[in-house]
């Protein structure tokens, strides 16, 4: 698999393929249905299977989000898309020039000239081009065979698989419900940074990770699985996600306390998978009360993850 990220023209061996187009934030079950359809069409005709997506997410250009919304920042999205074994992922640089490109020009310059597509698979609500002026009809009128897939509905919840619904679940701390729609265990990856070592002073050393542009789930204490990048085994961890009201911090952090682990994690990448929200963040009357609660949080984490 190859990733193209600078807007270049595809080499000849990747052209004339079936291409799935979308933002694919979350790479959820609905996306999987669309992507699998495109892959099956490519395999049937013996042509490349490609994925066309946009980076950064178009929403970052058109809106000033009041809070981060990405379910899958670029590295994680790449990882999840690559699991579908495409021949290539084409990350179309999304800037104002592309946003102002008329739909017909997008078809000519991007789909025909740069990608050389033979077929397209999109969701039925796909819009593109200046002022979102292009739709399924525009694609079909261009002469490129276009397949539009309808919404995929969960047989359990009766809800449409959508990134907005998943974001809503995570912001309410409803991890199991979010994961059921994703089809995989949502994770936050990040590099461990230096903190003020308050956790170590309290007997609970933590690996601190800045949340930055990834979606902020409900603030609180979570039972999580954590893995050091490059290792195979996942470790139990009690993790605080939030702003630490006890210490009057304003920066949203993820503080990961690996159970039964001693070692230096600075500058290493941690992969953290929330499993259950134990409680919301709280300010305690004393450090003694905080430590007693942390004891309970760690025990509850063991109970949940060890079950």
Average pLDDT metric: 93
Q: Count every beta strand, where a strand is a DSSP E run of 2 or more residues.
A: 12
Quote the beta fraction.
Answer: 15-25%
**Count of folded domains:** 2
Task: Specify the overall morphology.
Answer: elongated
Oligomer: single chain
Major β-sheet profile: 6 strands, parallel
Would you give the CATH topology of the largest domain?
Rossmann fold
Helix content: 25-40%
* Count of individual helical segments: 10
What's the arrangement of secondary structure elements?
Elements: E1 2-4, E2 18-21, H1 29-45, E3 49-55, H2 59-62, H3 74-82, E4 88-93, H4 96-99, H5 103-115, E5 119-123, H6 136-141, E6 146-149, H7 163-171, H8 175-182, E7 188-191, H9 198-201, E8 207-210, E9 220-228, E10 235-242, E11 253-258, E12 269-280, H10 287-305
Parallel strand pairs: 1-4, 2-3, 2-5, 3-4, 5-6
Antiparallel strand pairs: 7-12, 8-11, 9-10, 9-12, 10-11
């Amino acid at each position: 698999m190859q990733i193209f990220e600078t807007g270049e023209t595809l080499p000849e061996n990747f052209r004339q393929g079936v291409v799935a187009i979308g933002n694919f934030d979350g790479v959820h079950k609905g996306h999987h249905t669309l992507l699998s359809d495109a892959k099956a069409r490519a395999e049937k005709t013996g042509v490349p299977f490609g994925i066309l997506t946009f980076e950064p997410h178009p929403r970052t250009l058109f809106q000033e989000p009041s809070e981060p919304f990405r379910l899958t920042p670029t590295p994680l999205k790449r990882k999840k898309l690559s699991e579908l074994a495409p021949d290539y992922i084409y990350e179309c640089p999304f800037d104002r020039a592309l946003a102002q490109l008329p739909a017909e020009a997008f078809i000519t310059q991007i789909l025909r000239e740069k990608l050389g597509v033979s077929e397209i698979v999109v969701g039925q609500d796909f819009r593109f081009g200046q002022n979102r002026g292009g739709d399924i009809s525009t694609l079909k009128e261009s002469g490129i065979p276009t397949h539009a897939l309808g919404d995929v509905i969960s047989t359990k919840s009766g809800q449409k698989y959508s990134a907005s619904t998943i974001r809503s679940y995570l912001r309410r701390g409803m991890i199991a419900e979010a994961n059921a729609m994703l089809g995989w265990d949502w994770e936050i990856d990040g590099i461990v940074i230096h903190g003020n070592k308050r956790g170590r002073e309290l007997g609970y050393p933590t690996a601190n990770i800045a949340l930055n542009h990834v979606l902020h789930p409900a603030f609180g204490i979570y039972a999580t699985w954590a893995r050091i990048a490059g290792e195979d085994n996942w470790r139990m961890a009690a993790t605080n996600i939030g702003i630490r009201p006890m210490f009057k911090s304003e920066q949203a952090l993820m503080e990961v306390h690996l159970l039964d682990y001693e070692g230096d994690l600075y500058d290493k990448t941690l992969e953290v998978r929330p499993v259950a929200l134990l409680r919301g963040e709280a300010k305690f009357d004393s450090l003694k009360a905080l430590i007693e609660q942390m004891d309970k949080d760690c025990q509850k984490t063991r109970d949940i993850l060890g079950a």
